[in-house]
Please model this.
Amino acid sequence: MAKFEMDTEFIRLLAKLLEETNLGEIEMADGDRRIRVARPVVAAAPAMMAAPVTAASAAAPVAAAAPAATDAAKNPGTVKSPMVGTAYLLPEPGKPPFVHVGDKVIAGQTLLIIEAMKTFNPIKAPKAGVLKQILIDNAQPVEFGEPLMIVE
Model:
């Protein structure tokens, strides 16, 4: 097996990108080579997210998820997961969801949060528009690049 050479300048650039984008982690791959850079982020009330969500609170968004994820990935209004983690549609158990299908959202508005490595990362609307679909369930594990919502 070939020795894996570290490019410390590239790692510094990734760490700077984490800071600038306020993400909790970044992972990149090039062939067999993979690098993951993560940083701790302080989140408000992380212990509150541990409680299970009732089926009634997550039922409405699930019904809105009609098309397959592959079709949603092609939509220019698709909000994709920037990381691997658990997606939460509610700010905390018992509270209303961040957004509902049909809501008008503004650029930068929090749509959901993703817990990754015990850090809660807000996922914000990339543009203003109307929330057309929610493609995930509350407390669902998500992968990097997975379609989460559609804002048109």
